[in-house]
């Protein structure tokens, strides 16, 4: 096991295998869904709607933007833990998101970006 052992303020040690400056900082995200770091050293990300440079901070904002782009909320009674959007009944494009925005992670953001490339971008919070 190589890496750096770090002790937090409670005296609990944890191993950081690939240390970076960010991996030593344990901060709570300012908004739910922006603290998407899943590994030590991974930076939080935020989803940005490019035409207005708006940071998406809730599903209400996201649904409004996706609806403008032609996406429709999919009525999925068989999966109550998901919110899904589809492009049209003839399309295979589907975006699946967790019901709680607090569980909105970077891979959900990138799924939205891939399917709406000119309209969304994932950024570091410091660059927006």
From TrEMBL:
Domain of life where this protein originates: Eukaryota
Stretches with biased composition (Low complexity): 33-42
Gene Ontology BP annotations: regulation of flower development
InterPro entries membership: FPF1
Region annotation (Disordered) ranges: 20-42
UniProt family annotation: Belongs to the FPF1 family.
PANTHER family: FLOWERING-PROMOTING FACTOR 1-LIKE PROTEIN 1
Name of protein: Uncharacterized protein
Organism of provenance: Crotalaria pallida
